[in-house]
């Protein structure tokens, strides 16, 4: 696959993720967050499974020559990370608005190199630290700190960003060894659906009528975001180096804010807009400065 197709995949994936915040926010009028995620990701699994069986079944023997156990372990870690990230994000939307949730989610961008440095001891570019500071300042300006429930929601989203970081890292590891994006997409959505269903059975009620009331949001978030967007992410990370991929993924917050403005009338004030700019600047600095250094040495 050409790099241009991969770039388009990343951009389309980011657009779907950003606009899905609206479906996630409006889809909990009659059901709880874990019920929503359980049904959403099971719908995503059903959407991907036929494609995985059709296009990748014949590749299993060839791909698993490099080790089936490694694939199982990484697939489980990817599914667990996706469950924790999506669960915290979904619960957070009960307490904060779409714009805050979207922008705090992109904290995973500066988190990724830090986590890689801690566990792999890879060199950490100095630009990470000013980018983190800019993101923290932006978060202060973006959040309404006088509102305790909003603070709770934003805290949950930031914690969720940690697991989005591990999801990206584990995905980057598995695509280097296995070329099974559809199979991986089906496995991770099924795992999230199962984990969410178990938690939902304990703390929520599965009422078919209420679920059907949210069917439009569930189908959008399930088929497009829970299903195909994560497959697009896998394709993108297979053919794009981490820096430009992270820059594109960070646009998720921009798409979400624009969608919230058009569809939910969630208007940002001056401080909120300034906070968005600080966060975006921090994200871009953490990715662009290392690239500039590489260009200068070439």
What overall form do the CA principal axes indicate?
globular
Number of domain modules: 1
Distance between termini?
26 Å
Provide mean pLDDT, rounded.
81
Task: Throw out a few tags for this protein.
298 residues; mainly alpha
SSE blueprint and pairings:
Layout: H1 3-26, H2 33-56, H3 60-63, H4 68-92, H5 98-105, H6 108-120, H7 128-142, H8 148-175, H9 181-203, H10 208-213, H11 215-239, H12 242-250, H13 252-263, H14 270-297
Briefly say what this structure is.
This protein has 298 residues and is mainly alpha-helical.
Account of the protein in words:
With 298 residues, the protein is mainly alpha-helical. The protein has one domain. 82% of the residues lie in helices and 0% in strands. Helix 1 packs parallel to helix 12. The longest helix is centred in the middle third of the chain and has 28 residues. The mean pLDDT is 81.
């Amino acid at each position: 696959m050409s790099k241009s197709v991969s770039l388009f995949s990343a951009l389309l994936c980011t657009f779907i993720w950003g606009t899905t915040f609206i479906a996630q926010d409006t889809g909990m009028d009659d059901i709880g967050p874990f019920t929503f995620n359980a049904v959403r990701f099971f719908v995503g699994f059903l959407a991907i499974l036929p494609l995985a069986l059709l296009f990748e079944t014949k590749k299993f023997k060839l791909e698993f020559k490099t080790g089936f156990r490694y694939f199982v372990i990484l697939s489980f870690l990817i599914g667990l990370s996706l469950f924790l990230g999506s669960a915290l994000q979904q619960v957070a939307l009960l307490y904060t608005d779409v714009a805050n949730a979207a922008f705090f989610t992109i904290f995973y961008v500066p988190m990724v190199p830090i986590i890689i440095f801690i566990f792999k001891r890879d060199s950490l570019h100095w630009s990470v630290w000013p980018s983190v500071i800019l993101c923290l300042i932006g978060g202060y300006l973006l959040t309404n700190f006088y509102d305790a429930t909003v603070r709770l929601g934003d805290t949950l989203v930031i914690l969720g960003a940690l697991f989005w970081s591990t999801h990206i890292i584990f995905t980057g590891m598995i695509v280097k060894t296995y070329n099974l994006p559809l199979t991986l997409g089906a496995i991770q959505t099924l795992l999230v659906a199962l984990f969410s269903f178990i938690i939902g059975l304990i703390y929520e009620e599965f009422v078919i009528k209420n679920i059907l009331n949210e069917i439009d949001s569930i189908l959008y978030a399930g088929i497009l975001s829970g299903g195909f967007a994560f497959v697009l992410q896998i394709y993108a990370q297979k053919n794009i180096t981490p820096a430009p991929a992270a820059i594109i993924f960070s646009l998720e917050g921009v798409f979400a804010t624009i969608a919230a403005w058009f569809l939910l009338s969630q208007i940002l004030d001056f401080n909120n807009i300034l906070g968005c700019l600080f966060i975006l600047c921090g994200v871009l600095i953490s990715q662009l400065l290392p690239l500039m250094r590489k260009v200068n040495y070439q």
